[in-house]
Amino acid sequence: MRISVLGTGYLGATLAAGLAQLGFDVVGVDTDKTKIKSLSEGDVPFYEPGMEEVLRTSLASGRLRFSTELAEAAEGAEVHFICVGTPQRRGENAADLRYVDGLVDSLAPLLRRDCLVVGKSTVPVGTAARLASRLRELAPAGAGVHLAWNPEFLREGFAVADTLHPDRIVVGVADPADEAVLREVYAAPLAEGTPWVATDLATAELVKVAANAFLATKISFINAMAELCEATGADVVALADALGHDQRIGRRFLNAGLGFGGGCLPKDIRAFIARAGELGADEALSFLKEVDAINLRRRERVVELARAEVGGDLHGVRVGVLGAAFKPDSDDIRDSPALTVAGQLQLQGATVNVYDPKAMDNARQLFPTLGYADSALAACRDADIVLHLTEWREFRDLDPARLGEVVSCRRVLDARNTLDPLAWRAAGWTYRGLGRP
Ligand code: UDX
Q: What's the pLDDT at 212?
């Protein structure tokens, strides 16, 4: 089977390489020439553990290639995956669908024979039905062009594993024949026993945003508990451990701290709220506004705490910041809580030095005025306070005694609650977590 993957960002590049690894003949298409050149040479344009190996093996097998020519790709493929981005619209909550719409409008006139177009991008519910009629209307093959929706749940940092061994596969189809095609595409994970959920287009679109809304709610729930813990002197980490033993709740995604960021959760819950409003169901999702507000409050709280810890004024204070990526094992800094905090501290007069194991180049581009150092130790040199903002393993493994030798004051604010308070206190540090006594 020949497959085209349209859009080679995080999602598309990983999918293209993964499908080629599974034995399909794949072409990845993107308008970004630099990205296509880099992928064609086996260089992954973002940091993702394990991705380079899959990309290089797939390229070497001869089953994977990349191109900027949509026409050439569309020509031979029987299945086309839509993997372009759906960012938040500027100044609005709603999703910006210009890339999806633009792609469908360029692709449709090229579809001269029967084929299946499969949407993977995260879209507002109702988009798939609209695109299906647009394809029928514009494609020379007309009703022979079918559309299915197959949401993607991959997490950055685990993108390869999540693509090759997903925890479930959801397909929204309007015709049982389309489900059969998708079963062929996913034969390998299906053979491993991966659960398969076939449903209608609207439900498939909703599964994705509902999953992200649930995860965001879980994180904001525990962060709300952290606010209460702070008000009462209780410990949110022990609380989360105890809650997590209840199998109905589970411990995962109950890590209180600086909250969620990244290219998905924040914009997806906002787009979901906006779509519910358009559908006249805004009350159903009004709680998500609170989820968003709790989340953003964490960033303010960390700035406030840092200011309080240094005596109420950040002017002239030297801050060592550990972490810039929105989460560990990623170089993604989109809506990164760490950088929001670092930027705010600087605006309030502090001298901020940031170190991140992988996100330095991206951070520099977005926040060129922050200070950057090439190691944790260098970022914390002469610091009056150290802020732990992204929970990389490298930071958990830091020796607090060694770091204590370079700072001007042994004061640490652990905004991810993953450093060991006992070890840091034993090394003479004033340790402060979020929602912890
Ligand atoms: C998310 C979804 O998990 C994934 O299924 C979807 O396809 C895309 O969006 P991702 O953005 O890669 O994936 O990150 P995820 O691991 O979900 O973390 C999101 C944010 O939540 C990060 O900023 C992380 O630091 C934060 N988080 C996560 C917490 O603050 N506490 C937790 O307990 C877990």
A: 98
